[in-house]
C-alpha cells in the first residue's frame, strides 16, 4: 500500500468523520475541512467553507505545508433543505446546489494542479442514491447530487491520461444523526424498501472510498458505485 495525502471535505461528522477514521486506520496522512468541530484523532482539521474560494485556498495551503500535496480528494461536504417543489424558495434551491455542486467544483479544481504535477490523483465525489433514484421533497438535493455524475465523467475525459481517476460513490440510507432523528415508523418504512433490510454503517461507505483511492482501482474511472443495500439497483 502506498501512503497518500488525503483531504476529506466535511470531515467533522457522519460519513466524513468515518471516512477520515478509515483512511487514518490504513496509515494515510489525513486532513479534513470543517466549518466547525473537529475531525477524528490523528487528522489535521482545517477551517473552510466549500462555497468560499479564499477559505479553500488557505485550507489547501495549510494541508500542503503540513502533509504535502493532496493526492486523494473525497468531496463529501453537503447540505439539505428539503421541501416540496411548490414550497421551495429560490434561496433553498440555490444554496443547496451552490454547496453540493459548486462547492465540489471548487475543491476539485484546487486539488487538480498538484495531481497533474504528480501524474497521480484519486477524486471521489460523494453523491446519494436519490441523485439517480429521485425523492419527493428533494428536487434541490437530488439535482445537485446527480450532477456529480456528469462532473466525474467529464473529469475522467479531461484527466484520464494523466493518472487521475474520478469516481462517484452513491450511499443510500446510512446510520447517522440525520437518520436517527427520523420517527421510528418512518425508519421502518424506509427499511422495507431496502433489499438488505437495514441502514448502512458509515464505515461501509468509508471502506468503499478507501478502496477507490487505492492502487488497486487505477483502471476504474467515471463509475458510480452504489452503497445502498440494493435500494437504487444501479439507477
UniProtKB/TrEMBL annotation:
Presence of the UniProt keyword Hydrolase in the record: no
Domain of life, source organism: Bacteria
Keywords assigned: Oxidoreductase
Domain Ketoreductase: 4-177
GO MF entries: oxidoreductase activity
PANTHER family reported for this sequence: 3-OXOACYL-(ACYL-CARRIER-PROTEIN) REDUCTASE, 3-OXOACYL-[ACYL-CARRIER-PROTEIN] REDUCTASE FABG
Family: Belongs to the short-chain dehydrogenases/reductases (SDR) family.
Protein's name in the database: Acyl-CoA reductase
Species this protein is from: Aurantimicrobium minutum
Amino acid at each position: 500500500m502506498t501512503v497518500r495525502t488525503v483531504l476529506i471535505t466535511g470531515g467533522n461528522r457522519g460519513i466524513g468523520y468515518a471516512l477520515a477514521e478509515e483512511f487514518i486506520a490504513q496509515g494515510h496522512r489525513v486532513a479534513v475541512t470543517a466549518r466547525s468541530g473537529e475531525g477524528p484523532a490523528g487528522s489535521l482539521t482545517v477551517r473552510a467553507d466549500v462555497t468560499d474560494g479564499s477559505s479553500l485556498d488557505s485550507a489547501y495551503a495549510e494541508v500542503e505545508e503540513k502533509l504535502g500535496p493532496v493526492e486523494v480528494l473525497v468531496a463529501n461536504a453537503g447540505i439539505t433543505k428539503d421541501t416540496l417543489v411548490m414550497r421551495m424558495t429560490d434561496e433553498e434551491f440555490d444554496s443547496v446546489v451552490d454547496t453540493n455542486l459548486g462547492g465540489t467544483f471548487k475543491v476539485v479544481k484546487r486539488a487538480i494542479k498538484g495531481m497533474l504535477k504528480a501524474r497521480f490523483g484519486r477524486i471521489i465525489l460523494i453523491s446519494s442514491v436519490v441523485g439517480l433514484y429521485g425523492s419527493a421533497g428533494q428536487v434541490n438535493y437530488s439535482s445537485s447530487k446527480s450532477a456529480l455524475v456528469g462532473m466525474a465523467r467529464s473529469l475522467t475525459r479531461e484527466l484520464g491520461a494523466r493518472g487521475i481517476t474520478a469516481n462517484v460513490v452513491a450511499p443510500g440510507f446510512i446510520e447517522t444523526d440525520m437518520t436517527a432523528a427520523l420517527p421510528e415508523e418512518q425508519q421502518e418504512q424506509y427499511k422495507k424498501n431496502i433489499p438488505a433490510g437495514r441502514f448502512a454503517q458509515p464505515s461501509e461507505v468509508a471502506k468503499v472510498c478507501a478502496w477507490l483511492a487505492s492502487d488497486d482501482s487505477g483502471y476504474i474511472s467515471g463509475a458510480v458505485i452504489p452503497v445502498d443495500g440494493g435500494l437504487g439497483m444501479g439507477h
